[in-house]
Amino acid sequence: MESQEYKNILVGVDGSDQAQQAFVKAIEVARRNNGKVYVANVVQQQITPMLGYGEINQSIMDQETESAKELLETCKTYAREHDFTNIEGILTYGSAKQAMARDLPKKYHIDLVMVGQSGLNAVERFMTGSVASYVIRQAPCDVLVVSEEA
Questions:
Q1: Which of 22, 38, 54, 70 holds its CA 20 to 30 A away from the CA of 29?
Q2: Count of alpha carbons within 13 Å of 26, Cβ hemisphere only?
Q3: Max alpha carbon distance in the chain (Å)?
Q4: pLDDT at position 128
Q5: Any idea which fold 8-146 has?
Q6: What's the CA gap between 19 and 27, in Å, rounded?
Q7: Secondary structure of residue 141 in the 3-state scheme
Q8: Whole-number pLDDT of residue 150
Q9: What percent of the chain shows pLDDT beyond 70?
Q10: What does the buried/exposed string (b/e) look like for 44-58 if buried means 16 or more CB atoms within 10 Å of the residue's CB?
């Protein structure tokens, strides 16, 4: 069996410890493979069905966008501090599941998607569904789930 080289690695970050662990490991994998890390944050677009809430909704979107930009910049800074420069930040809007499983892997020719294991317990994962489990089932490439460190 031939060894897989992962040149284009996608990792989603959302501010959680699990996502941060996946990001750190993505850098390690990319470094070993002379690859590139695409670090993504997906801002869920809020659609308010009632009239009159547009300004509030836009304010929330602006705040989430600003937080996402800061998070991506923090990731880039971490990478630079660890002598890794082949990194691209991606800020996108919509469904995190769809973006991580389909849209971004296709657009950036991703070889490996890395996701953090949900911090939810089994019942919570079953009830809400997780981005990680969706990505595992739908991604067109290999997926590595980074588990919580003991």
A1: 70
A2: 35
A3: 60
A4: 41
A5: Rossmann fold (3.40.50)
A6: 13
A7: coil
A8: 40
A9: 79
A10: eeeeeeeeeeeeeee
Query: Distance (Å, rounded) from C-alpha 71 to C-alpha 15?
Result: 7
In this prediction, residue 81 carries a pLDDT of 96
DSSP 101-118: IIIHHHHTT-SEEEEEPP
Contact 46, 60 (CB under 8 A): yes
Q: What would the DSSP string read from start to end of 48-99?
A: --STT-HHHHHHHHHHHHHHHHHHHHHHHHHHHHTT---EEEEEEES-HHHI
Whether 145 shows a pLDDT value over 50: the answer reads yes
Query: How many angstroms separate the first and last alpha carbons of the chain?
Result: 32
What does the pLDDT average to over 98-127? 80
Calpha distance 67→14 (Å, rounded)? 10
With tokens 């890794």, the residue in question is: 84
Q: What are the residue ranges spanned by the domains of the chain?
A: 8-146
Q: What is the mean pLDDT of residues 107-130?
A: 71
Tokens of 103: 């849209």
pLDDT (tens digit per residue) in 1-24 = 556 789 999 999 988 888 999 999
